[in-house]
Design goal:
single chain, 133 residues, alpha+beta, Alpha-Beta Plaits, 4 helices, 5 strands, globular, binds flavin-adenine dinucleotide
Length: 133
């Protein structure tokens, strides 16, 4: 059974590009091995990430990620059963803040990036839009 788990969290310190690259390198290596795909974005010290794959693998990985001391205030935004993956071409895509990032955000009626202000549908729609850039 395939699921999509989307969560938001807050970085425990400002993340440099190198910090993000370190996360992505491990994520991409691990996720490929367990057939998990998804999308991560980061700005204003907030992370928003979606993980798609087999339920047990997604649940297990999420519990591991949630324990990571690089972030806290981890909150599940959405959890749904899906017929197929949406982010299949990304073992873990990443979108930093950019003009296009903010254009997408503006389409949701928001000027600043705070995933807490998004509905679950908006969060997935935002990440899907970022993956398509
Ligand atoms: P190790 O890398 O040896 O980690 C051991 C422990 O140290 C873990 O608790 C880890 O959380 C912590 N740790 C690792 N590096 C650092 C560091 N630089 N600073 C502080 N603590 C550190 N992993 C994935 O596999 N897939 C993902 O999609 C994914 N997404 C992530 C998204 C975010 C926002 C964050 C913060 C982390 C993400 N990670 C992801 C990383 C994940 O939390 C683990 O670090 C990773 O799975 C490897 O853990 P490990 O125990 O196998 O090995």
């Amino acid at each position: 059974m395939l699921v999509r788990l989307t969560y938001m969290s807050r970085a425990t310190r400002d993340m440099s590009l190198q910090d993000i690259q370190d996360i992505l390198q491990v994520a991409r290596e691990n996720n490929q091995g367990i057939n998990i795909c998804g999308m991560l974005c980061y700005d204003q010290r907030y992370f928003l990430q979606t993980l798609e794959g087999e339920r047990d693998q997604v649940n297990e990985l999420f519990l591991e990620i949630a324990e990571d001391p690089r972030h806290d205030d981890v909150v599940i935004v959405g959890y749904e059963y899906i017929p197929a993956t949406t982010f299949g071409s990304w073992d873990m895509g990443f979108a930093p803040a950019s003009d296009q990032f903010y254009q997408l955000l503006n389409k949701l009626g928001q000027n600043t990036f705070n995933p807490a202000d998004m509905t679950p549908e908006q969060a997935v729609s935002f990440l899907t839009g970022l993956a398509a850039l």
